[in-house]
Each structure stands twice: as structure tokens, then as C-alpha cells.
Amino acid sequence: MSICLIYSVLFLIMSLILFMFSLNFLFYDYSIFMELELLSLNYNSFEMVLLFDWMSMLFMSFVLFISSMVLYYSKEYMLGDLNINRFILIIFMFVMSMMLMIISPNMVSILLGWDGLGLVSYCLVIYYQNIKSSSAGMITAMTNRVGDVMLLMSISWMLNYGSWNFMFYLDCMYNDYYMNVISLLVMMAAMTKSAQIPFSSWLPAAMAAPTPVSSLVHSSTLVTAGVYLLIRFYNCLNLNLLMFLLLIGVMTMFMAGLGANYEYDLKKIIALSTLSQLGLMISILSMGDIMLSFYHLLTHALFKATLFMCAGNMIHTLMNCQDIRYMGNMITQLPLTCVIFNISNLSLCGFPFLAGFYSKDLILEVVSMSYINIYIYIIFYISTGFTMMYTIRLMYYSMIGNFNFLGMNSMVESSFIMLKSMLLLVIMINIGGSMLSWLIIKTPYFICLPIIMKFMTIISILLGLIIGYNLSKMKLSYSIKSLNNLFSSLFFSSMWNMPLLSTYLNKWFLLLGNDFYNSMDQGWYEYLGSQNLYNNYKNNSKIFQSLFNNNMKIYMVLVVAWLFLLLLLLL
Known about the structure:
Blueprint lengths: L2 H26 L2 E11 L2 E10 H24 L6 H19 L4 H19 L5 H27 L19 H17 L8 H4 L5 H7 L6 H9 L6 H22 L5 H21 L3 H28 L17 H15 L5 H15 L4 H27 L15 H25 L10 H4 L1 H18 L9 H11 L4 H24 L2 H5 L1 H20 L1 H20 L1
Antiparallel strand pairs: 1-2
Helix pairs in contact: 1-2, 2-3, 2-8, 2-12, 2-16, 3-4, 4-5, 5-6, 6-9, 8-12, 9-11, 9-12, 10-11, 10-15, 11-12, 11-15, 12-13, 12-14, 12-16, 13-14, 13-15, 13-16, 14-16, 15-18
């Protein structure tokens, strides 16, 4: 039995067990805090705190289920790879880092999981070792380091409270100045991990990783970590932070939806779609509905993982070609893959009774009922139309248009292992949305809207469908007359020049750090800082330990010395 199959079965069994536990905890409204003493040093106890409630266990169940399908999928996708065992073990480390982050109510253990996600994602992005992968991995690592620094600063601010278990302070310290600063730092950290503006450029760049990694990273693990952290920290986010977060979320949603309509790389279109949906989750969370945000996070994980798997199958069949302009009429040669691809796309667009419909339609109707300004309202519905536009464009280029690659007989649907893993996820897409709506929404939403606002969602979707189809049929000519179109398409497809700005900013900070080290530091921080502190602490501990081990002998020697001194004084 291969290592892929072993880990896949293990994750699937763990997913089912956790799902049953989450239902039990949800029904009885249980939460379990578990304190594990790691070590005791000089009467100081180092404890690790874990939180098990229905939300963390349900999220872990979904992560493990998708990881199980991805590992089974990798068995065939990575078949020719000589280092397949290393690849599987790196993914295992990635999933375990995510598990640690999910069940941690403690800032230090959250940082361990958070940093584990960042470091292991760097290893996965540079898996295909070339210049492009190296550049993509560096921008991914550097952007995520900003979030790590924010969390480290929040840990230092939490020293004011005497404990890093932030769960105990969220309600009682709501108006405290220190907690407001911690909330701001945590919000910035979540923005980096969930790729909100201005940290968005790393998410499409991370597509340099193998497709199974993209399927896992951009559906349920790395990018959703920021949203999950904000859900946990929601009680102490004040109104100003939430308004700022709402503005950033809708801007990200609009920018990613617009950019996806100008992109030609299959995986990058799906990555920009992920970015758009993350903006949607952040927006509805900042408007006060954390349950809807969590609900959309789970349903989005299902259909986005399936979309990446279908894209991987198409790329595999087209001999590693990712440009959608070379595709077309694939429905004749890859019927099952295209059916699964269409179901996932329809779920993304909110087609009735698929997973995306239950969460996305409810979010848009709650937005319509909310007390918000016209700017936010319009951007929400325009972004929904953009979702339909790039989805129709993707379906046109891959299935409706002419086939523009090699001979069509070179395409054959023989990847049964990949298809089996995709089919299991498609079953969840069909039943997952309604199942989750029955489970996690305890009180049904009462939506009361005028007829025109009720139909706004379907109007924006139909407009997006018509415009997207007509734009796909038009051939964009890059002649001298259409230089304006060329510049606008380059500007929009490069996400408003954000990768360029991120690269230059990272470059100057790295150069500044190198100059500082060479001219001022020269290794003194290592001597005066962590390493020397550790050595001093270790040596002092050895002295105290030797005193504690020989305390009876030392006591007796001191008694004898005292008696001897007493005799001398008496004489």
C-alpha cells in the first residue's frame, strides 16, 4: 500500500470521527478546554491549552476530508515524481500545522501553527525547483512574515494580561486600550494570510506549486486561516476596525473579480476567484454575521478544491499547458471531468440547491437587509456579476470554443484515481450546503425584502452571464489601435500592479536588513539576545538544580559550620 493511500485513509477516518463529535458538541452545546503540562522548570509550569468546540471540530473535519481526497488524487497526479514520499510528508506537516492553529485558544500555540503554515507553504511553492517557483515562494514567505511579526507583537502586548489565552479576555476587555491594539495587530495578521489588499499579490503567485497543493492551500487551509482567526477574535473588534475591514473586503472582492476577467492562466483564474470569495467572507464577517462567514468558508472549501482538481486533470491531459486560449471543446474528450468542472463552477456562481447557493444567496440577502451605504451595496452586486462573467468566460474557453492545441486524439480521460476523488467531493457539493444549513444555523433567517431587491441577485447573475459570454466571443486584437485595451488588460490582470509594488517593497526591506546587519549588528544581537539569554538561563538552572539535589548535605554542612562558629564565639 502506497504512502498516499495510507495517509488518505487515515485522514478520512479522522474526518468522519471529528464530524460525529462536532454534531454531538453542537447538539449539547459542549466546549472542552484541555490543559497539557509540557514541562516544569524551576517551579515554572509550561502548559499547552487546546479548545475543542463544535466550530473547531467541524472545520477540522472538512480540512481532513479535503486533505484525504487531495492525497488520493496525488497518487496519480504525482505518479512520475521520484520524491513522492517527501511531497506527502510535507503535506502532512502542512495539515498538522493547520490543525494546531484551529484548536488553539492561546496566542503562542496559534503562532506555532501560523508560522508552520507559512514555512511549509514556502516548501510546497518551491517544490518544482526553478526561478519562477523561487520568486513565487519568496513573495509568499515575505508577505506571510508580515503577519507573523504582527502576531509576535500581539503576544508581547498580551503580557499586560498575565496569560496568552486570549479566549478569557475577549468579552471582559472589550474597551481596554491594550486589547484594541492586540485586535488591530491580529486583524493585520489575518489580512496577510487571507491575502486582502494590499497583501493580495502572493495568492496568484503561489500557483507555482503542484496542483494538489493549490487544491488544498486555496480551499480550506492557508488562506482561510486568517478568516478563522478573525471569527475567533470577533468579540473584541471595535466598530472602527470592522468598518475598515469591510472596506478592505469589498475592495478585494471587486479587484479579484475584475482581474479574473483579464487572466488567461487557468489556475490563476481560480486563484483570483478564491481571493474574491475571501473578500466576501471578510465583508460579511465585518458586518456582524460570523456564522454566515463560517458557513461560506466551509461550502467554498468544497467546490474550490474540486475546481482545482478538475483544472489539474485538464492540465495533465494537455501536457502541462495552463493557457485557456489553447483549450476548447474539451467536453467531447473529457466528459466526466467537464461535468464535475461545470457543477463546481455553478456552485461558485450560486446555482440553486448546490453548496454555494445556500451560503452566497443568503449573504447577499442579508447584505440587502443590512443598514449599509449604497457604495458597499453596489460593489457587492457588481462583484457577484463579475463572478458569473469569469466563470462563463472560463467555460467558453475550455468547453464551448474551438480546440486550439495539438490533435484532439491526444486527450483521453483515463485518470480513474483522480476522477474518484473528484466524484466524492462533488457528492459533498450537492448535499453539503443544505446539510450545513440545517446543522449550524440554529434560528432560520427571516428575509423580508421588496420584490426588486429580492431579484437583484438573479439580475446581477444574468447580466454577468450575458456580458461574459459576449466578451468571450470577441477577439481582442493587440494592434496599434488597441494599445489602450492592452494597457488596461495588463493593469487589471496584474491586480492593479500589486505584484510589482510588493516585489519592490520586499527588495528594499531585505537590502536594508542586510546593510543593518553588516554595519551595526555584526552578530551582537545573537550574543546579547536569544542565544546568550538561553545560555545564562541554562547555566543558572544547572546551579539551582545542583543546590536542590544536594540541599540536605548543604543544610548539614551549614549547621556544622554554625555550631563551630558558635563554639568559637563562646570560647
